[in-house]
Specification:
Layout (H helix, E strand, L loop, with lengths): L1 E4 L2 E4 L3 H12 L4 E4 L11 E4 L2 E4 L4 E2 L4 H10 L3 E3 L5 E5 L5 E4 L8 H19 L12 H5 L3 H8 L3 H16 L8 H10 L3 H5 L1 H4 L2 E3 L5 H8 L6 E2 L6 E3 L15 E4 L3 E5 L1 E4 L3 H4 L3 E3 L4 H8 L1 E4 L1 E8 L3 H4 L2 E6 L7 E4 L8 E8 H8 L3 H16 L8 E6 L9 E6 L3 H5 L10 E3 L12 H26 L7
Parallel strand pairs: 1-14, 2-3, 2-15, 3-11, 8-19, 12-16, 15-24
Antiparallel strand pairs: 4-5, 6-10, 7-10, 8-9, 12-13, 13-14, 17-23, 18-21, 18-22, 19-20, 20-21
Helix pairs in contact: 1-10, 1-17, 2-17, 3-6, 3-7, 5-6
C-alpha cells in the first residue's frame, strides 16, 4: 500500500472536484484527486461510437451560466449555437404531429391560456425562492409536503396543460415522475435557472455547445495539475479522521486519512465531490452524523436514456424543421438537432425518462431501439428509422453514477435535510452540481460549488495555521 501526504484530498475528478483542485493548487496547497473511473469528467463524457463523436453526458451551455462561460473563456474553448432554424413539432394525445413556430405549441385556446397562466404562477413563486436556501421561504414546509403533480392538479383541470408543464420539470430536468418530488423541489429547479420561463425556452436553456465536446472542461482542468495529482481507477473506500487513531506527527492540525485499494493519503482536509447517492459508498470513521446519513437516503437520481441517432445528412432541415420536438404523450418526450460543429452528417438527440424508461428497459435492446426510433419517426417522418449510428447513454448502468441528471429529494426532504448538506463534517466537505444553487445539476453549478468548496477549504486551512502559529510577547 503506497502512502502519500497532501494538504487536501479531492474525491472525484468531475467538474466540481477539478475546479476545487486547481483553485487550491493556485492558492499554494498540495492536492490529490482520487477518481474511481478510468477517466476524468464524471457526468461529462465525449466519446466516439462507430467513428461518430457523441456527447454521452452533459453538453449544453445557456446564457445565464456565467461561471461555465468564464471557465470556457479561461480554457480557450469555443462554442457554437444549436441549430434551431425552421418549425418545431408537437404531438398531442391524438398522436398527430403538428408543426409550429413560437413558444407555445398548437393546442386549443383554453389549453394555451392555461399553460400561459401556469407559467405565470410558477414564475411568481420562483421569484420568491432563494436557490441557495429554498427552505427559508415562509411556505417552504407546505410547498415541500405536496407533490408537483398534486399541486398542478389543484391549479388546473386541463390535463394537456398540466402534462406539458410537468414535462419541463419532471421529464426534462429531474427525470422523475411529477408525483415523486415536491413543489418546492420543482421551484428550486426553476430558480436555479433564473425562472420557470427559462426552462420552457429551449432556445435559452439549450443555447450552445462546446466545439469538441464539454468534457474538455474537466480534461483541461486536470491538465493544469501535475500528472501524479490525478489518480484514476482509485475508488475511495474509507475516510478516517479520528485523530486518536492516526500518527500524531502525520500532518499539522487535525489529520485525515483517505484509503483506496492501492493508496493511503494523509491530509488536512478532504472534499468529497461526488453525487450524494455515492457518498455512502465510502466508509467514514467516525460515522457521519445520523441526520447526514438520513439525508443521503432521502436523495436519489432520476432515470433517463439519452438517445443519439446520426444520419448521413440532417434530413429534417430539408423538410423545414429545426428538429426541436416534444410531447408528454410520446416515448421520446423531447428531441433536438445535435449535429456536431462542422459535420455534414446530422445527429438527433432525444430523451426517454422516468417511468417510460422503466418500460423500455424491460424490452430487449433490439425492441427498445425499434420503439425509440418509431417515436422519433412520429416527429420527423420515416427517414428517422434509419440512422447510420445509434447509441443510448444509460447513466443508471454506470457504477459510479447510477442515474441522471442529478440528485433530488423526496417529499419533505428538502426542508428537513437541505441546509445541513452544505455543512462540513470535521475536516470533510461535500459538494457537486447536485448541491448547487444557481446552475443546479448543470456544469455551471458544478463549477460554482467547486469554487465555493475551494474557498471554504482555503479559509479553513488559513484559520488553522493562524491557531498553530506560536504566540510571542514583546520584551
Amino acid at each position: 500500500m503506497k502512502r502519500l501526504e497532501r494538504d487536501v484530498v479531492i474525491v472525484g475528478a468531475g467538474a466540481t472536484g477539478l475546479t476545487a483542485a486547481t483553485q487550491l493548487r493556485n492558492a499554494g496547497h498540495s492536492v490529490i484527486v482520487l477518481e474511481a473511473r478510468d477517466r476524468v469528467g464524471g457526468r461529462l463524457w465525449t466519446n466516439h461510437i462507430e467513428g461518430q463523436m457523441l456527447e454521452i453526458g452533459g453538453q449544453w451551455v445557456s446564457p445565464d451560466q456565467t461561471a461555465l462561460l468564464d471557465t470556457l473563456d479561461a480554457l480557450g474553448l469555443k462554442t457554437y449555437e444549436r441549430f434551431r432554424d425552421g418549425e418545431s413539432v408537437y404531438i398531442g394525445r391524438d398522436g398527430v404531429a403538428k408543426r409550429f413556430t413560437g413558444d407555445i405549441f398548437p393546442a386549443s385556446p383554453r389549453t394555451k391560456s392555461e399553460i400561459e397562466r401556469l407559467i405565470g404562477i410558477l414564475d411568481e413563486l420562483v421569484a420568491q425562492i432563494d436557490p441557495a436556501a429554498p427552505w427559508e421561504h415562509p411556505d417552504a414546509a407546505a410547498f415541500d409536503h405536496i407533490s408537483f403533480r398534486a399541486w398542478l392538479e389543484d391549479q388546473s383541470d386541463d390535463e394537456e396543460a398540466r402534462e406539458n408543464i410537468a414535462l419541463f420539470i419532471a421529464d426534462a430536468m429531474l427525470t422523475k415522475p411529477a408525483h415523486a418530488f415536491s413543489l418546492l423541489q420543482a421551484l428550486l429547479m426553476a430558480a436555479s435557472a433564473g425562472s420557470f420561463s427559462h426552462l420552457v425556452d429551449a432556445d435559452f436553456i439549450l443555447d450552445k455547445r462546446v466545439i469538441g465536446g464539454l468534457q474538455q472542461v474537466p480534461l483541461k482542468l486536470a491538465a493544469q495539475l501535475d500528472s501524479g495529482d490525478v489518480c484514476l481507477n482509485q475508488p475511495v473506500r474509507r475516510i478516517q479522521w479520528s485523530a486518536a487513531s492516526l500518527p500524531a506527527d502525520a500532518v499539522e492540525g487535525e489529520p485525515v486519512e483517505v484509503t483506496t485499494d492501492d493508496l493511503v493519503v494523509t491530509a488536512r482536509r478532504v472534499i468529497v465531490a461526488v453525487p450524494p447517492n455515492l457518498c455512502n459508498r465510502i466508509e467514514y470513521t467516525p460515522n457521519l452524523p445520523r441526520l447526514r446519513q438520513q439525508g443521503l437516503q432521502h436523495q436519489s437520481l432520476g432515470l433517463v436514456i439519452k438517445v443519439h441517432a446520426t444520419y448521413e445528412t440532417p434530413f429534417w432541415r430539408e423538410d423545414g424543421l429545426s428538429a426541436t420536438a416534444f410531447s408528454p404523450f410520446q416515448l421520446v418526450h423531447e428531441a433536438y438537432d445535435n449535429t456536431n460543429h462542422g459535420e455534414t452528417r446530422g445527429t438527433l438527440v432525444g430523451f426517454v425518462s422516468d417511468e417510460k424508461a422503466d418500460a423500455v428497459f424491460g424490452l430487449s435492446a433490439t425492441e427498445r431501439k425499434e420503439r425509440i426510433l418509431q417515436s422519433l419517426a412520429a416527429y420527423y417522418g420515416p427517414k428517422a428509422l434509419e440512422p447510420v449510428v445509434y447509441y443510448e447513454s444509460d447513466w443508471a448502468a454506470e457504477e459510479w453514477t447510477q442515474g441522471a441528471y442529478a440528485a433530488s429529494f423526496d417529499l419533505g426532504g428538502l426542508t428537513r435535510y437541505g441546509a445541513m448538506q452544505l455543512e462540513p463534517v470535521g475536516p470533510i466537505r461535500f459538494g457537486s452540481s447536485d448541491l448547487a444553487a444557481e446552475g443546479y445539476q448543470h456544469v455551471d453549478g458544478a463549477i460554482r460549488v467547486g469554487r465555493r468548496l475551494a474557498a471554504e477549504t482555503i479559509d479553513s486551512l488559513a484559520s488553522e495555521q493562524q491557531l498553530l502559529r506560536p504566540i510571542t510577547t514583546a520584551s
